[in-house]
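thoughts on these tokens:
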Amino acid sequence: MKSLVLIVCFFLLHGFVFAKIGVDIAWFNSIIPVSTAQCFLKNNVSFAIVEVGRSNGLLNINASQTIINLQQAGFNDVDIYIYPKVAANPMYQVFAALFYLNSSNATAYNKIWFDIEEDSRDPWNTSCAVNIAFLTAAIQEALNWVTKDKIGI
């Protein structure tokens, strides 16, 4: 029994030792300067995920410069996420977000994530089929910009 406890403790500690620390950068964070991004790296923050599409359907206008600054600071692991507004056109939201990043030369991201959450101000449909159609449309638009292995939910 004692050896079983030691083995379990080893695997638990092993997971914590090799865990990565990241930062979620949303619109209210403003533009993250290069110096702040460098500070993150010096303090073992190894990845960043930047909000591009906000839950209200608008773009995070700080995202492009933040992504560029993260890259200039030395971040190699940067992802983006879109928090889709259910009441808006899913394809347009994805198109607008990715067009904005491309037109700003902020394309140094690895993966596009869809942040799917329940929001009382913008609730999901009670029909599973309607929700699946919404996400399928969003993913289909994302596939016009990246390969399927670069998309996550």
Notes: The mean pLDDT is 89. The beta strands are 21-25, 45-53, 78-82, 112-114, 151-152. The chain is about 40% helix and 15% strand.
